[in-house]
Structure formats: structure tokens, C-alpha cells
Specification:
Oligomer: single chain
Number of helices: 3
Low-confidence stretches: none
Shape: extended
Distance between the termini: 45 Å
Number of strands: 0
Structural class: mainly alpha
């Protein structure tokens, strides 16, 4: 039987926090918008920051582990998150929201 990690340990070590370039304890904030690809027509681990980047990946993997999940997805805004959820729902789905939900939603 494995001993589960305390929340304090999880908060510090959750997710994939490896800095492959510099071996830093925490990954740096990546501001690049585009990434070098291995070959023409072949995508590397990251291709364009709006899709994914090392900083976002570190955040998503940490969030998934902290929440006890397998995956997490970060979006650029609340409206992007709303659009993503609505795109995932089948036609004629019903959505329940609280009374004070953002008006644009």
C-alpha cells in the first residue's frame, strides 16, 4: 500500500515541473509564440503558444494532479473556457448556471 502525499507536498511537487533546458527547480515562464519543429510537416512537443507551451503544460499538469484528475485544460479567458465547454456538449444539451453568471455567457 502506497502512502499518499500530503497537500503541502502536492502543492510544491505536483505536475510535470521539469525544466528540460536549464534543470531549474521550477520551469521558467515561456514567452515564445512559436517553437522549432523537427521536420517539415512534423510537429514537436509544442508548436504554437495558443495551443500549448511549456509554462501552460506545467500549470495544467499541476492542476490535474492537485484536483485528483488525469487532465486539465487552461484557457486564455473565461469566455474561451465557456466556448470550449459548449463546443464539447452534444446538440440540445441543457446547461444549469448560477444566477450571477457573467453576462456574456
Amino acid at each position: 500500500m502506497s502512502k499518499s502525499k500530503s497537500i503541502a507536498t502536492l502543492v510544491i511537487h505536483a505536475g510535470d515541473q521539469v525544466d528540460r533546458g536549464n534543470n531549474a527547480i521550477f520551469p521558467p515562464i515561456t514567452t515564445a509564440s512559436s517553437f522549432i519543429q523537427p521536420n517539415l510537416g512534423e510537429e514537436g512537443e509544442f508548436c504554437y503558444s495558443r495551443c500549448s507551451n511549456p509554462t501552460r503544460y506545467a500549470y495544467e499538469t499541476a492542476l490535474a494532479e492537485l484536483e485528483g484528475g488525469i487532465y486539465a485544460t487552461a484557457t486564455a479567458s473565461g469566455m474561451a473556457a465557456t466556448a470550449l465547454v459548449l463546443e464539447l456538449l452534444p446538440k440540445d444539451s441543457h446547461v444549469l448556471v448560477m444566477k450571477g453568471v457573467y453576462g456574456g455567457t
